[in-house]
Specification:
Layout lengths: L9 E5 L5 E5 L4 E4 L4 H11 L4 E5 L5 H7 L5 E6 L2 H11 L5 E5 L2 H4 L6 E6 L7 H31 L10 H14 L7 H10 L5 H13 L5 H11 L11 H16 E9 L11 H8 L4 E9 L13 E9 L1
Parallel strand pairs: 4-5, 4-7, 5-6, 7-8
Antiparallel strand pairs: 1-2, 2-3, 8-10, 9-10
Helix pairs in contact: 1-2, 7-8
Length: about 325
Amino acid sequence: MARKRGPCKVVFLPDAEGRPQLIQEEGCHPIMMPWQEPYMEACIEALQPEGDVLEVGFGCGYAANIIQKYRPRSHTIIEYHPTVADRARQWAQGYDNVTVIEDTWQRALHKLGVFDAIFFDDTPWESAWDANQYDALESIAQSLLRKGKKLLSSLERRLFFLKHKKYRDEDLEYFFQHLEKTSATQPQHFLKFFYDLQEKGNITKKQLEWVLLRLQQEALITKKEIQEFFGKLHKVDFRAFKEPELDRFFEFLQICLKEHMREGSRCSYSVDAPTSKFEEERFFQEIILNPHVDFQERRIPLQVPKECHHYPYDEALVVLITKR
């Protein structure tokens, strides 16, 4: 009999300064931390949430508090996790324009009307059962990584001449084509090699991002495999990386553009990495080039604590999508 899965258990704990933070109880994995509040504020500032507002995902209430500063006519919150939804209801008692819906947005959205501003910060809640499966997968992955060390060493020996030079984009393109055509090494083992090149200054961070994108475009490696690699490299729980973020947001946005946004309605969402959306092929093709949509993005600096490994960046991407 299959085990019943439900959302993971979470708890709200104050930080050293008494600010709320949302933690997954089993394993103490952080879900929402106070350092994220300035990012939420920047997203909401870009959104200008006036009129009828929809918020998907309540978290610690950082975004909800900022939304209320704009005095919206109505503020609808969809939150699936029962513990978080209960906290949202307690928070909402202080406002007469807030409605909290305890459900997934997939089930709740079709029952709702049209909104002037939408903020999406959905968390794919995992059960303890899911967490155990990830732990098992990580153990297997570690074993595979150990077996891959010999292959990595072989790759580095064969390509030693590239480890003491600065790549131009042209060099990297030639090198990439050469690897595709002649290397017997599995593509997954390129990750460590290219990462080391970036760490040693042979290639830039932007060039590394290009390599990762190229590997995905050629179907040589998946986004999930990349995230798992970097998760283990930085000793983070790769569950923190929302691998299906883009697919979930696209599904959500497509429904909203068709049924829940009028001309001039705006949408923003919490982005997992500061990489420009102009560099993501699907986003570029389906959103940026969409004649019925205006797209804006900007990077902002972000002070992330050193001990916080699930977001290894010092900046964040603020995006705004407006329906024409």
